[in-house]
């Protein structure tokens, strides 16, 4: 699968996944993305951990156009 990530709003990102085999392969990409965001981030002398959650929608299965998937 090919994929890219983009920021939609202050605390919202979207991953666009193309050429995936099934929803499970997309779930694996989402899990890896969430795990990587959970890695510690250093800021001066402090370290922070971010938390992320993912929802999955598939064009043509969950909506006929891309715009509703991003709302």
Features of this protein?
71 residues; alpha+beta; two-stranded antiparallel sheet; 2 helices
Kindly describe this structure.
This protein has helices spanning about 25-35, 65-70, and strands at about 1-10, 10-20, 40-45, 45-50. The chain has about 70 residues and is α+β, with helices and mostly antiparallel strands. The strands form two sheets. A two-stranded antiparallel ribbon has the order 1-2. A hairpin with a 2-residue loop joins strand 1 (about 1-10) and strand 2. The longest helix is centred in the middle third of the chain and has 15 residues, at about 25-35. It starts with a strand and ends with a helix.
Give a quick rundown of the structure.
The chain has helices at residues 23-37, 66-69, and strands at residues 2-9, 12-18, 41-43, 46-48.
Average of the residue pLDDT scores: 85
Number of strands: 4
Helix content percent band: 25-40%
Number of helices: 2
Write the layout of secondary structure elements.
Blueprint: E1 2-9, E2 12-18, H1 23-37, E3 41-43, E4 46-48, H2 66-69
Antiparallel strand pairs: 1-2, 3-4
């Amino acid at each position: 699968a090919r994929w890219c990530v983009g920021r939609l709003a202050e605390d919202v990102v979207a991953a666009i996944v193309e050429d995936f085999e099934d929803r499970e392969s997309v779930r694996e990409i989402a899990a890896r993305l969430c795990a990587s965001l959970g890695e510690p981030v250093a800021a001066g002398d402090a370290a922070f951990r971010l938390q992320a959650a993912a929802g999955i929608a598939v064009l043509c299965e969950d909506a006929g156009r891309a715009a509703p998937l991003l709302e």
